[in-house]
Amino acid sequence: MHALREAAVPAFMGIPGGMELFVILLVAIVLFGIPVILLLGGGGYLLARESEKDDRIEELEREVEHLRDQVEESPGSDTEVAGEESAADAEVASRDERRE
Hints:
This protein has helices at residues 2-7, 18-73, 78-99. The chain is mostly helical.
């Protein structure tokens, strides 16, 4: 009777040990954790990029409005327009330098 007891195999395996738990945890992180992190990071990047676009678009709209006002104020003289263009070019160059 004692020999039968030693030959019996349990129906299930025991609780996983340290290395087995580490491998299971690693597989779970690769399958679920990394894609979630990439999705969250990508969403944050897209939101930040979109707000930057909004700022640039608003700046360009202000500049276009400013240039339209200049054209409406002085429709006649070419020298005035040339002087205003150089002032506008200087303003754009100074804005570009501030961005860098």
